[in-house]
Amino acid sequence: MSRVLFASDLHHCHMFWHGVESDDRMERLVKAIKDEYEREPYDLFLMLGDYSLDFWAWSTKGCYVNEGKSYTEAFVSKIVPHIPCPSYMIAGNHEQYGHDKWKEITGCERRTAIAYRDALFILLDNYGGDLDPTEHSDGTYTPTDIAYVKEQMATHPDAKHVFLCAHEFDMRFEGEDFKALLREEDRIVALLAGHTHLSAIVPLGEECGGKLLLRTGQFSYSGNIKESRWGWRELRFDDDGKVSTAYITPSSDVVIDNEPSHAERGEQDAAVLVEGRE
Asked: What is the pTM of this model?
């Protein structure tokens, strides 16, 4: 048995959410991911964007355009070294750095593919429009690069299970060709994305071949913090071929509706994605 964890919307920034200041929240994040590893080791920690509010169109605006300050850079220097396994970062809509700057800050490309056991994770850049903006930005969605997906699947023909991963899959802006890809490619098991700050398993319907979109929650703020507390999504690969998922919420103390709220570690939104061998 082995595990891969997916986290998104971690938002190291100037904001104060659910009664916790950002530096304190990042310390709690580090402790939580270390505690989870000690409880049951995992092999990969894949992060699907929004480590900051560096580019932001609202309220106090993004700190990178305002001040040249990069919370993404701070996240890489302060948080990433504590992740107890190999990790990878793709950008969200609040990290509109161009390709060169993104790689300089993170050491990662804005998109990549990672082979793991008999699976393939294709990490996409679905906020790759209008990079390096000189004005405040909320990010520009760019539809899934289908040619890149097909290229990576062809490069890894032995990958039985393919997972498409992005900061977001906004089906309002995806065309029929993407839906046809999901219908026709049986190797594509599911999609994983963050952006909504919620945990959920979303059926995409028959037009998308009955595939599921697995939401990866948040470790920052949520409009429904009672149901989507801080956490991350797990993919579990059993030795008999079974692949399953759940949203894991570590033990946490936050403020909800002006009242302290404690929760012990829990799991929710679980599903079997691939049945194991009998």
From this structure: 0.97
Question: Which residues, 6+ apart, have CB-to-CB distance to 61 below 8 Å?
Answer: 136
Q: How far apart are CA 243 and CA 220, in angstroms?
A: 28
At residue 67, the pLDDT reads 86
Q: What is the largest CA-CA distance in the chain?
A: 59
CB 189 within 8 A of CB 183: no
Q: Are 51 and 75 in contact (CB under 8 A)?
A: yes
CATH number of the domain encompassing residue 148: 3.60.21.10
The whole-angstrom distance between residue 256's C-alpha and the CA centroid of its chain comes to: 24
Mean pLDDT of the chain, nearest integer? 96
Place of tokens 């990549």: 112
Q: What is the extent of the structural domain holding 197?
A: 2-274
What are φ and ψ of residue 261, in 5° steps?
Answer: -140, 125
Q: Number of structural domains, the chain? A: 1
How many other CB atoms are there within 10 angstroms of residue 232's CB atom?
28
pLDDT at 278 over 70: no
Q: What whole-number distance in Å separates Cα of residue 278 and Cα of residue 240?
A: 8
Of residues 67, 66, 77, the one with CA closest to residue 26: 77
The pLDDT value given to residue 135: 85
Angle, CA of 52, 131 and 45, to the nearest 5°: 45
**How distant, in Å, are the alpha carbons of 25, 63, 106, 266, 275 from that of 71?**
14, 8, 12, 29, 41
Q: pLDDT band for position 66 (50/70/90)?
A: confident
Cα distance between residue 182 and residue 192, in whole Å: 13
